[in-house]
Amino acid sequence: VVALDGADRALCCCKAAPGSKPKSLRRSRLVALHPRRQGQVTCVVTHATDSFRTLANAQVQRGDRVVEIGASTGETAWRLARAVAAGEGGSGGSKSGSYVGVDCSEEMVATAKKAHPDLEFQLLDCLMEKYRFLALCEGADCIFIDIGGSRSAETVVLVLALLLKRMQPKLVVIKCEELVADLDANTTVDDSGEVQDAAAWFTAAVDAAAKSSESWGRKKDQRKIRHPLRHQRKLAPNGVEICRYYQFGECHRASDPGGCPYEHGLCYECLEPGHRALD
Ligand SMILES: C[S@@+](CC[C@H](N)C(=O)[O-])C[C@H]1O[C@@H](n2cnc3c(N)ncnc32)[C@H](O)[C@@H]1O
Ligand SMILES: [Zn+2]
Ligand SMILES: [Zn+2]
């Protein structure tokens, strides 16, 4: 456990002990592997969906307010909802827990709603609609994150940084194989699974993720605003020059009586038909 972001915020970054809790155990027999610590965010990172769902059962307490990011079809959702309603311990009977799941896929949200009509799911991309996302997470005790896909570690790190700047949930649980690999490669982990140099690692990871997503965005933008003729001339395999206006902007000769004499049929970048370099 180490201080992060100054003295008043700390991140306890742990790896879930792999395979420690078989799925068949009754919820009432599960023990929270990773304790919550007063005034700190406990962050549990796992590589497997099974463990993620077990953590949903074991780490969440009755009365918790839970937000799940990447709720998909709702397979973790109902476990979380059950845990906040019927979980053991925690702040006890008076506080009523809540569950909200978000996903950026319309199809997934529809499927989840159909499967679990009593639970709340919202269509939301947490990186595109930051303010709506933060408003939704405000006051949450537990945040579960599994957004899958490539570049997921980078996205998860950015989401986590965004959250921790604004709020201090008690618990964050993340499923991300890439992130576990990154922790394995770049940190020291003690016997109980706690990452020793979590703060330094997190600072570096946020830095790298921010740089990478920035340069990625910039590259894309630059390509868009460059004048078409600033791109080198290029011939299609049939020997006809590729129309740079068509590829990188608009070709006004396409509507000429004889059409544009340059090649419009292939992509400037990959020479495949069916799309343009900017598509
Ligand atoms: C691997 S699935 C999650 C599975 C879920 N944890 C379970 O146990 O069934 C990942 C989901 O994250 C969603 N997702 C990806 N990027 C997202 C983003 N930026 N905001 C919200 N959801 C996102 C995808 O649509 C997908 O449904
Ligand atoms: Zn043209
Ligand atoms: Zn192409």
Any overview of this molecule?
- By secondary structure, this protein is α/β, with parallel strands linked by helices.
- It folds into two domains: 2-214, Rossmann fold, CATH 3.40.50.150; 226-279, no CATH class.
- Helices cover 35% and strands 14% of the residues.
- The protein has eight helices and eight strands; from the N terminus they run E-E-E-H-E-H-E-H-E-H-E-H-E-H-H-H.
- It has helices spanning 49-59, 77-86, 106-115, 130-137, 152-166, 177-186, 198-225, 244-248; strands at residues 2-3, 10-15, 41-46, 65-69, 98-103, 120-123, 142-145, 171-175.
- Strands 1-2-3-8-7-4-5-6 form an eight-stranded mixed beta sheet, with helices on both faces.
- Helix 1 packs parallel to helix 2 and helix 5 (152-166) packs across helix 7 (198-225).
- The chain is elongated and about 75 Å long.
- The two termini are 46 Å apart.
- Mean pLDDT is 81; it is low at 1-30.
- The chain binds S-adenosylmethionine and zinc ion (2 copies).
- This is C3H1-type domain-containing protein.
- One of its GO terms (molecular function) is zinc ion binding.
- Keywords: Metal-binding, Zinc, Zinc-finger.
- A zinc finger (C3H1-type) spans 237-267.
- Residues 237-267 form the C3H1-type domain.
Mean pLDDT: 81
CATH C-level name of the largest domain: Alpha Beta
* CATH topology annotation of the largest domain: Rossmann fold
Structural class: alpha/beta
> What's the architecture of the largest domain in CATH terms?
3-Layer(aba) Sandwich
Count of helical stretches: 8
Find the count of extended strands (DSSP E, 2+ residues): 8
Q: Could you estimate the helical fraction of the residues in percent?
A: 25-40%
